[in-house]
Design a protein that fits this description.
Elements (H helix, E strand, L loop, with lengths): L9 E5 L7 H17 L2 E8 L2 H5 L11 H10 L4 E6 L2 H4 L3 H12 L2 E7 L12 H11 L2 E5 L1 H5 L5 H9 L3 H8 L4 E7 L13 E4 L11 E9 L2 E10 L10 E6 L10 E11 L7 H22 L1
Parallel strand pairs: 1-2, 1-4, 2-3, 4-5
Antiparallel strand pairs: 6-7, 6-11, 7-10, 8-9, 8-11, 9-10
Helix pairs in contact: 8-9
The structure holds flavin mononucleotide and adenosine-5'-diphosphate.
Pathway: Cofactor biosynthesis; FAD biosynthesis; FAD from FMN: step 1/1; Cofactor biosynthesis; FMN biosynthesis; FMN from riboflavin (ATP route): step 1/1
EC number: 2.7.1.26, 2.7.7.2
Organism: Winogradskyella luteola
């Protein structure tokens, strides 16, 4: 049987939107409003992996969000359709017109495009907004330009946020993001040492090697387990006191005692407490952990 699917018309914007920060949110809210006015579905076309990972084979690039996190953040601000196009060498060789015709028009059914005045696209990024307006007539869509002024008013950038996190400045990063920076990972087995210190620690494994992890150190964090909000103190580092070599991410949750092995946790960063240190023995480390706990409890009590 022949089945015809009619694709709903879309208001589409295009970008990486790494972090989906306050500047991105402003543009995306605009997209949602424009789409509403037209009766179109607000849509984001996003490329993954990052072009630099593919074209320069740069494995060192770190992103604020995994692709799953990016999709969830976009959904939470009202973007209905998210198209994740795999960015390959072949894709990068698409001419501007082929890209517009096959992807934006035929595949997505874009009726309106919202784009920055300085957007470049197509093979070698040679086409610009003037070209896009030319294609608009031919392929029956409209172009909404985001002006230079609107773009310059956005002083936040993904790079600034990455820099802040690389320096452990999570509170600053959070103010740029408009939400708390978070990681998503699975609780795995550690060395079983935490419990002997009376500080059991959930070791977090993040499968996406490109996810940016804040600077090594100790942080106050927040998570959820079975709908309950839980707070904790997280250490990111190599555990020099026990002569550790590999980097780990571990959290001791405060006033909490459950087996959470294999759980998937979303963990938000609230505040940095200190650097990771090498203590002369485990007793000294334990004393410091008790201090950290007091600091975390003070912080939690001030939230209420
Ligand atoms: C809040 C917190 C802070 C920590 N700070 C340090 C530190 O400064 N130096 C250090 O060597 N280890 C630190 N650790 C890690 C401990 O050394 C210990 O290795 C770890 O808790 C054992 O984890 P595991 O048995 O689950 O692998 C810290 C752990 C937590 C939870
Ligand atoms: N307050 C808590 N914070 C973190 N994990 C806890 C807590 N209470 C119990 N647990 C459980 O204990 C485990 C950590 O115990 P630990 O002795 O440090 O062993 P491991 O080295 O295998 O992580 C966690 O993965 C979790 O399942």
């Amino acid at each position: 049987m022949l089945k015809l699917t009619v694709k709903s018309p879309k208001t589409t914007t295009i970008g990486t939107f790494d972090g989906v920060h306050v500047g991105h949110q402003k543009i995306l809210n605009h997209v949602v409003r424009l789409a509403e006015k037209q009766g179109y579905a607000p849509t984001v076309l996003t490329l993954f992996p990052h072009p630099r990972m593919v074209l320069q084979k740069d494995d060192s690039i770190k992103l604020l969000n995994t692709i799953e996190e990016r999709v969830a953040l976009l959904k939470s601000i009202g973007i209905e359709t998210i198209i994740v196009k795999e960015f390959t060498k072949k894709f990068s060789n698409l001419s501007a017109e082929d890209y517009v015709k096959t992807i934006l028009v035929n595949e997505i059914n874009t009726k309106q495009i919202v784009i920055g005045y300085d957007h470049h696209f197509g093979k070698n990024r040679t086409a610009n907004i003037t070209d896009l307006k030319k294609f608009a007539k031919e392929y029956d869509f409209t172009v909404e330009e985001i002006s230079a002024q609107d773009i310059e008013n956005v002083t936040v950038s993904s790079t600034k946020i990455r820099n802040a996190l690389n320096e452990g400045k999570v509170a600053l990063a959070n103010s740029f993001l408009g939400y708390n920076y978070f990681i998503t990972g699975k609780v795995i087995k550690g060395k079983g040492l935490g419990r002997t210190l009376d500080f059991p620690t959930a070791n977090i494994y993040i499968k996406e090697s490109y996810k940016l992890i804040p600077e090594d150190g100790v942080y106050i964090v927040k998570s959820r387990f079975k709908e309950e909000v839980i707070y904790g103190m997280m250490n990111i580092g190599t555990n020099p006191t026990v002569n550790g070599k590999t980097k780990s991410i571990e959290v001791h949750f405060i006033n909490f005692n459950e087996d959470i092995y294999s759980s998937e946790l979303k963990i938000e960063f609230l505040k940095r407490l200190r650097h990771e240190q090498k203590f002369k023995n485990l007793e000294a480390l334990k004393t410091q952990l008790q201090n950290d706990r007091t600091n975390a409890l003070d912080y939690m009590n001030n939230l209420k």
